[in-house]
């Protein structure tokens, strides 16, 4: 098997791994919306395993790219991306196959980024809601930044604490 065929195989495997990460991201969205923490933890563990696989495949991709360069007599230690490598491929069939797998991987990565951005926004909204809810329960509406004597605070000694007294 030539180094280009190996490279295409590795890129296809990278795409499969990223598609699995996309499925995990979609499941995470449902877990976040449903407030299912146990499922979210399991999905994050699966995501960690997937990231390790992606790192291994990416290292293999770089190794095969270097092997291809050496086969062509190019003495470079640069870590070329797929687009730069495609410019160095002169066989029309190989170039088309590389461009095809590059486009597929790029589309998958774009979808994964969108799903992760949505999950991040959902988590931020959930955290904002929790912060708001806690502030309603704990904070006082007229809480001052500076110290005031509780007996002379203008309320006749009555405390203006929220529903939950955090000092207790």
Give a brief description.
With 168 residues, this protein is mainly α. It contains 4 helices and no strands. Helix 1 runs antiparallel to helix 2 (37-71).
Treating each run of at least 4 consecutive H or I residues as one helix, how many helices? 4
Number of strands: 0
What is the residue-mean pLDDT, rounded to a whole number?
85
The low-confidence runs, each spanning 5 or more residues with pLDDT under 50, are none
Strand and helix order: HHHH
Q: What's the overall geometry?
A: elongated
Rg, Cα atoms, Å = 27 Å
> Cα distance, first to last residue?
72 Å
Report helical residue fraction: over 70%
Helix and strand content put the structural class at mainly alpha
Note the beta-strand portion.
under 5%
Largest pleated sheet: none
Describe the 3D structure.
By secondary structure, the chain is mostly helical. The protein is 71% helix and 0% strand. The chain is built from four helices and no strands. The chain has helices at 3-33, 37-71, 82-87, 92-138. Helix 1 (3-33) packs parallel to helix 4 (92-138). The longest helix has 47 residues, at 92-138. 11% of the residues are buried. The model has no long low-confidence stretch (mean pLDDT 85).
Write the layout of secondary structure elements.
Layout (H helix, E strand, L loop, with lengths): L2 H31 L3 H35 L10 H6 L4 H47 L30
Helix pairs in contact: 1-2, 1-4
């Amino acid at each position: 098997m030539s180094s280009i065929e190996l490279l295409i195989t590795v890129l296809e495997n990278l795409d499969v791994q990223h598609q699995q990460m996309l499925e995990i991201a979609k499941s995470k969205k449902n877990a976040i919306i449903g407030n299912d923490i146990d499922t979210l933890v399991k999905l994050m563990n699966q995501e960690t395993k997937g990231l390790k696989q992606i790192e291994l495949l990416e290292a293999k991709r770089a190794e095969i790219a270097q092997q291809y360069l050496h086969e062509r007599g190019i003495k470079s230690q640069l870590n070329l991306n797929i687009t730069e490598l495609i410019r160095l491929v002169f066989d029309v069939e190989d170039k088309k196959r590389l461009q095809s797998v590059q486009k597929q991987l790029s589309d998958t990565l774009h979808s994964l980024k969108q799903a992760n951005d949505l999950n991040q926004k959902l988590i931020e909204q959930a955290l904002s809601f929790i912060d708001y809810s806690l502030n309603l329960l704990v904070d006082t509406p007229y809480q001052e930044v500076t110290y005031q004597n509780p007996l002379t605070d203008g309320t006749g000694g009555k405390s203006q604490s929220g529903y939950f007294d955090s000092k207790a």
